[in-house]
Amino acid sequence: MVRQILRFPHPLLKTPTKRVDVIDREIRELVKDMFETMYHAEGVGLAANQIGESLRIMVIDTSPKKEAPPLKLVLINPEVIQTEGSIRYREGCLSFPGLTVEVERFSKVVVKALDLEGEEKEYELEGFPAIVFQHEMDHLDGITFIDRVNGLKKRLALDKYAKLQKQKA
Ligand code: NI
User: Fold this and answer.
1) Could you tell me if residue 1 is inside a domain?
2) In the chain, at which residue ranges do the beta strands (DSSP E only) sit?
3) Alpha helices (H) along the chain
4) 24 C-alpha vs ligand 1 centroid, how far in Å?
5) What pTM was computed for the model?
6) What is the pLDDT of residue 66?
7) Domain assignment present for 4
8) CATH classification of the domain holding 15
9) Number of domain units in the chain
10) How many angstroms is it from 78 CA to the middle of ligand 1?
């Protein structure tokens, strides 16, 4: 089911999410909804709290991004094990329709997470997938991409976002 994506400044986007204890039918259903919602919105990543579920789950599918090798992942209770390098990229966010912000991220991350079967897996992500992962990981920690830029840039981005929201209203 395609669910509604919460928009900034919804409080759930600023609230750190909780770990998943048991991967049951409900969680599998949620993950299915997350993929459907992400594809519907033409995104490449989505965090559970963006559709109102404050849980540490993210989905990623980089296949719409032609330059990057296609990668489809479900990460439950993800953790960063190792980071390396830096990369700047102009990011968008489904919770900030129309806004893009240039953010600095690690260029490579090694992460571990549970998959839908509850098995712990390790992933080495580099370049675009690493950027998407860090963006979604921030969501799970109650952080959004505008928190990753300095005060002035953040204010400009928020002003622009406010204008975009007004145009749509
Ligand atoms: Ni986002």
Assistant:
1) no
2) 45-47, 57-61, 72-84, 87-92, 100-105, 108-114, 120-126
3) 25-40, 128-140, 151-168
4) 26
5) 0.97
6) 80
7) no
8) 3.90.45.10
9) 1
10) 16
**How many Cβ atoms are within 10 Å of 53's Cβ, its own excluded?**
19
| pLDDT grade for 70, boundaries at 50, 70 and 90 | confident
Q: Which amino acid is at 108?
A: K
Cα 4 to ligand 1 centroid, rounded to whole Å: 14
Known active-site residue 136: yes
Q: Which of 42, 67, 79, 136 is catalytic?
A: 136
Angle, CA of 61, 12 and 136, to the nearest 5°: 25
- The residue behind tokens 């806004």 is 99
From ligand 1's centre to the CA of 60, what distance in Å? 11
What are the pLDDT digits (tens) for 13-55?
A: 999 999 999 999 999 999 999 999 999 999 999 999 999 999 9
Is 32 contained in some domain? yes
